[in-house]
Write a structure and sequence with these properties.
By secondary structure, the protein is of the alpha+beta class. It has two domains: about 100 residues, Winged helix-like DNA-binding domain superfamily/Winged helix DNA-binding domain (Arc Repressor Mutant, subunit A); about 80 residues, Serine Threonine Protein Phosphatase 5, Tetratricopeptide repeat (Alpha Horseshoe), CATH 1.25.40. It is about 60% helix and about 10% strand. The strands form two sheets. A four-stranded mixed sheet has the order 3-2-1-7. The chain has a three-stranded antiparallel sheet with strand order 4-6-5. Strand 1 and strand 2 form a beta hairpin. It is elongated. It starts with a strand and ends in a 5-residue tail after the last helix.
Length: about 250
């Protein structure tokens, strides 16, 4: 990454300073603080909330002192990657990551790449869309780290759904550009995360047909049907049934 400091919270937590990992105690206070701020990069977190979250058994005064000490310690550890700037700033009672200083967060970069991909794809710039979608997928190394309160669970699920949708869009873009092996690869990645995504099963079926593996495409339909029956006692959507019939009777039209 080109950023002076790059914070990763999608997948295993990590801070990179000038491309090199910064050593922090796993699950420690510094990781909790930076991870919580990185999960709220645009709005920050109120000082009292951080104290209550990170030092739940301490008094407000002691917790506030510990927070001040930790913020200062992180400044000393990271400011040389930011031209001397502080990585965390306080504004109107809320602590925020200093995003204007050369500090970047993977969530923001991920969502920016997704938006760029959508914009390129809508404009018909398929190659550019593929590049943006691939960047987004590479940034999503796993689900959002953090705790288990409702706001975190909702954000984790939102980002996960965005990643799944991006994999689907990436497979579509590759298929449209006649990159059938890459379309298949991304559809299978999507199914590795969510076996019940029928759009991904259909992409696998279509890609197999274009790659000359009609029998494998038909088998994929049976896989899809079995999964849906086992998970939901349901049958495939009409679009999946129609594709199966087309592959079986007139594969040249797929």
């Amino acid at each position: 990454m080109d950023a002076g400091v790059f914070i990763r919270v999608l997948g295993p937590f990590q801070i990179l300073k000038k491309g090199e990992p910064v050593s922090l105690r796993a699950g420690g206070k510094a990781e909790q603080l930076v991870g919580w701020l990185a999960s709220h990069p645009n709005v920050g977190v109120h000082r009292a909330t951080l104290v209550e979250r990170i030092w739940p058994d301490a008094s407000a005064a002691l917790g506030g002192q510990c927070l001040n000490t930790l913020v200062h310690s992180l400044k000393m550890q990271l400011c040389d990657g930011l031209g001397g700037a502080a990585p965390i700033v306080l504004s109107q009672g809320r602590y925020m990551l200093n995003l204007g200083s050369g500090l970047e967060v993977d969530i923001l970069e991920f969502e920016s790449a997704v938006r760029d991909g959508h914009r390129h794809f809508t404009a018909g710039a398929v190659v550019a869309a593929i590049s943006s979608y691939e960047l987004a997928v590479s940034l999503y190394r796993g689900d959002l780290v953090g705790g288990s309160d409702i706001s975190e669970l909702l954000e984790r699920e939102r980002l996960r759904a965005t990643c799944l949708g991006t994999l689907a869009r990436l497979a579509d873009a590759h298929f449209e550009n006649a990159n059938y092996e890459q379309a298949l690869e991304n559809a299978l990645k999507l199914l590795a995360i969510d076996l019940c995504r029928e759009d991904a099963h259909r992409m696998v079926m279509r890609a197999f047909v274009r790659l000359g593996a009609r029998a494998q495409a038909l088998r994929q339909y049976n896989v899809c049907r079995s999964i849906l029956r086992y998970e939901f006692d349901a049958i495939p959507e009409p679009a999946t049934e129609q594709l199966f019939t087309l592959i079986r009777t007139d594969p040249d039209q797929v």
